[in-house]
Amino acid sequence: MSINPRDYNCKDEELPVIDGFVLSSMKKDLADFTAYSPKFDAAYVSNFEP
């Protein structure tokens, strides 16, 4: 049995809640995210949505 390395420090069942929070924050503060890095634009948010 191989061990799957994790790049996060939370329970797996908490990930959807965290993802939802990040998505809503990005939508609300898109200008701030885009100012931080041009990578985080409207297209990025669209690809992030389920």
Descriptive account of the structure:
With 50 residues, the protein is mostly helical. The protein has one domain (12-48). 56% of the residues lie in helices and 0% in strands. The protein has three helices and no strands. The longest helix has 14 residues, at 15-28. The radius of gyration is 14 Å and the shape is elongated. The termini are far apart. The model has no long low-confidence stretch (mean pLDDT 91).
Quick rundown:
This protein is mainly alpha-helical and 50 residues long. It has three helices and no strands.
Keywords, separated by commas or semicolons:
50 residues; mainly alpha; 0% strand
Overall tally of structural domains: 1
Rounded to an integer, what's the Rg over CA atoms? 14 Å
Order of helices and strands: HHH
Biggest sheet details: none
**Estimated structural class:** mainly alpha
> How far apart lie the N and C ends?
31 Å
- The counted number of beta strands is 0
Assembly level: single chain
Question: What is the approximate shape?
Answer: elongated
Measured as a percent range, the helix fraction is 55-70%
Mean pLDDT: 91
Helical segment tally? 3
Low confidence ranges: none
Beta content: under 5%
Task: Describe the secondary-structure layout.
Blueprint: H1 15-28, H2 30-36, H3 42-48
